[in-house]
Design goal:
Metal_Hydrolase, 2 domains, single chain, binds N-carbamoyl-L-aspartate, binds zinc ion, TIM Barrel, alpha/beta, pyrimidine biosynthesis, hydrolase, zinc ion binding, Dihydroorotase, 14 helices
Length: 436
């Protein structure tokens, strides 16, 4: 049994944000209360071994749920695999991760869904839930067998990495997915507008002489998908929203009652196109980083609830791939191990976002939208818990990363604010930044 003493508990699902004590027993949260005596706790332990953690100055919140991670297994295990990715997850404070379907082969049938579930269970760290593709082979034309994949353990459907260009296929997908109750996760990118662009089109791309991707490459598909969601009554989730224009479209759609949710990645909240260097591909990501005005609009959208969730879009790549010239390197930023710290340091500490809102957006909302366990510390629920130390500082050292990937903009930097203990179903899986 665990007694987390004098911690600041943030649980937006129960409207708690105050100093409390937390008891964890038999894999579940037993009790949250602000007045526990040693006698009471010992009586509850019923002779079981009791570990007391002094949490003064630290936060406890429900484990983060990341609805957008690329774990690369099967097929590209040199970039990441389910074991390394789920270890990286608990190191970063995530107790549940949704694994994107753009593996090799893509997760487009029940057998593959079951394979990902099984590898996640074997790894035994964060809960790993597979996202199935929307179309067979991610080819954008023929729908997968959604009900069968749901029965196998899929949690959502997405052709992430590629946009479904054919609007009729997207319409059918939204309609058909209603049978499962799952959202279709859309990677909004018009292929023709994006062309072979390398970064967001604007002053910076012009200055660097790099081919640009206009903001409209995203927003025209956001608009299309919102219209299709309205027409079908289907559930839509928009991945990695990156522009002010998209935020405004979502705001209006929500006012109309369209069943849409949206996520934003930490890198779009923290960096902008001006920071990209042609000699360093680490900020080469899809969708590309926008302008400062986009970044501000994304923060405002997250604050006012237009954007529901934060998600890492953890996109691991090998060092050899990322060492290629800018035009040839793959898009993607690895995020699992640094994302929470980055959000703490760049957004919460400077007062741009409250920690309560961050937990709501990274734990409660994902659980609600995708119908997942977690996102709460309600007594009787599985203890997926994070103890976060805002003062803990660490150099992002490649030797310490649990992920196979090194493509993070924070490599070598000193960061502050980290999860220092993480439990999955009451089992301690990370302590003092070491995965157990
Ligand atoms: N985000 C990225 O830049 N890359 C992702 C694909 C994606 O999320 O669209 C990847 O799979 O590497
Ligand atoms: Zn994508
Ligand atoms: Zn992605």
């Amino acid at each position: 049994m665990w007694w987390l003493k004098d911690v600041w508990v943030i649980d937006p699902s129960q409207k708690i944000s105050s100093p409390q004590d937390v008891l964890v027993k038999d894999g579940n949260v037993l009790e949250i209360s602000s007045s526990m005596t040693e006698e009471e706790v010992l009586a509850k332990a019923q002779g079981e071994n009791l570990e007391i953690i002094n949490g003064t100055g630290k936060f406890v919140f429900p484990g983060l749920i990341d609805v957008h991670t690329h774990l690369r297994e099967p097929g590209q295990e040199d970039k990441e695999d389910i074991l390394s990715g789920s270890r990286a997850a608990v190191r970063g404070g995530f107790t549940t991760i949704l694994a994107m379907a753009n593996t090799q082969p893509p997760i487009d049938n029940r057998a593959l869904v079951e394979f990902v579930c099984r590898q996640g269970e074997r790894a035994g760290y964060a809960h790993v839930l597979p996202i199935g593709t929307v179309t067979k082979g991610m080819q954008g034309s023929e729908l997968v067998e959604m009900a069968d994949m749901k029965a196998g353990g899929a949690a959502a459907f997405s052709d992430d990495g590629k946009n479904i260009q054919n609007a009729e296929v997207m319409r059918l997908a939204l309609e058909y997915a209603k049978l499962t109750g799952f959202p279709i996760i859309s990677h909004c990118e018009d292929k023709n507008l994006a062309g072979d662009g390398l970064m967001r089109r604007g002053v910076s791309s012009a200055r660097m002489g790099l081919r640009g991707i206009p903001a409209s490459a995203e927003s025209v598909i956001v608009a299309r998908d919102l219209l299709l969601a309205e027409e079908t009554g289907g559930k839509l989730h928009l991945a990695h929203i990156s522009s002010a224009e998209s935020v405004e479209l979502i705001r209006r759609a929500k006012a109309r009652g369209i069943d849409v949710t949206a996520e934003v990645n930490p890198h779009h909240l923290i960096f902008c196109d001006e920071e990209i260097k042609i000699t360093d591909t680490v900020l080469k990501v899809n969708p590309p980083l926008g302008s400062q005005a986009d970044r501000e609009a994304l923060i405002e959208g997250l604050r006012d609830g237009t954007i529901d969730m934060i998600a890492t879009d953890h996109a691991p790549h090998t060092q050899a791939e990322k060492a290629r010239p800018f035009a040839e390197a793959p898009f993607g930023i690895a995020g699992l191990e640094t994302a929470l710290s980055a959000v703490w340091q760049y957004l919460v500490k400077p007062g741009k976002l409250s920690l309560d809102r961050v937990i709501e957006a990274w734990s409660v909302s994902p659980a609600d939208r995708f119908g997942l366990a977690g996102g709460t510390l309600k007594p009787g629920t599985p203890a997926d818990i994070v103890l976060f130390d805002p003062d803990f500082s660490e150099v992002i050292d490649p030797a310490k990363l649990a992920s196979k990937a090194r493509n993070t903009p924070f490599l070598g930097k000193t960061m502050q604010g980290f999860p220092v203990m993480v439990w999955v179903e009451g089992r301690l899986v990370q302590r003092d930044r070491t995965v157990l």
